[in-house]
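Contributing new complexes? Match this layout with EPS.
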Amino acid sequence: MSIGSHLRGVLMSELRFVTAGESHGPCLTAVLEGLPAGLPIDLEAVDADLARRQQGYGRGGRMKIERDRAEILSGVRFGETIGSPVTLRVVNRDWENWKDRMSAMGEPVGEKVTAARPGHADLTGYRKYARRDIRDILERSSARETAMRVAVGAVCKQFLKAFGVEVVSHVVNIGGVSVDLSGIDRSCIGETDSDLNCYDRAAEEEMKERIRSAKEAGDTLGGIFEVIARGVPIGLGSHIQWDRRLDAKLAGAMMSIQAIKGVEIGEGFACAGLPGSKVHDEIYLDSEGHACRRTNRAGGLEGGMSNGEDIVLRAVMKPIPTLMAPLHSVDVEEWKEVLACKERSDTCAVSAASVVGEAMTAFVVAQALCEKFGGDAMVDVLSAFRAYDERVREAR
Ligand code: EPS
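Output block (do not edit by hand):
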């Protein structure tokens, strides 16, 4: 087999997706390819995740306009996948207000954006893509795109459910206010009705207070969220090669979310200050003679593979770069120092990012499952999974 055909083979068996669409264009779309045929699709569950992403104390005016709903344009018939690419669409209601300025054809209309925002893609994107209006960059770098990641992730969650896998998230820090993790029962995560997807009421009130003051000051806030994947079978990913390691894929997927600046797995950065005896999860035998752990500091990943414990990831989101009290910058047309442009934006979107983190984790775990048990039909994938699961459960 030539390298070319080998690579094609790899790509064809892979679960993958791309998104398209501008923040104020007519709609956003995603194409998800590689899902086996025969997976029942619940569109209401997709919409429920889209609604969760729109929530959050500190969101801006845009979220009052949008009511994100997913439509399916291909790949599903009578509520079941048929093996072909699944196309999802979310309409931008704000398009009505932007039709002329975001028109695909015709002469440019409206004022250009020329004052770059520090921390956004504005300045580098404008130069790299040789544009004359920063809007050509900000429309796509906007986190509006994450609506499609959430829609794709929601479909992946339905695939994962067939294997007993569940992905949840919670916010653990906003603007320096931290949740007391020792007081949190992680098994309850996934059940909150909190505005900030936070499970520590006292911390949540303080977070809201910080968001209120940041908004008053024309400033923005970032934070940290945690994603937990439960029920992941052992042995997804591999120690064999750098690009097959599941921890690398998860970290990469998390870093791909707009405004994320750091990721840690399990104890993560805290490991730097601890001796090995306080970091590694000792292995015991339970009453039935099965290997078990009493701690999960590894965050469910050892040697680039899932080890059967919960996968625990945390990601840090920087404060949103669009400030109402703008920072020093340059005007790209006049090439002089100015204050950055003020676009309508959010004060804090960490709770929205947590839902996106869930979606990206669900996608990566679904991709790893497809890679390991891949098949064209759900029945085949499930029977490969059950045979493997039986073997590894029996293995001593
Ligand atoms: C964003 C700017 C704001 C946010 C947007 C991300 O949009 P607008 O410019 O329309 O006010 O609300 O987030 C979303 C639209 C969304 O759906 O999350 C940005 O510049 O990144």
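Reviewers usually confirm one structural detail per submission. For this one: The chain has one domain: 14-394.
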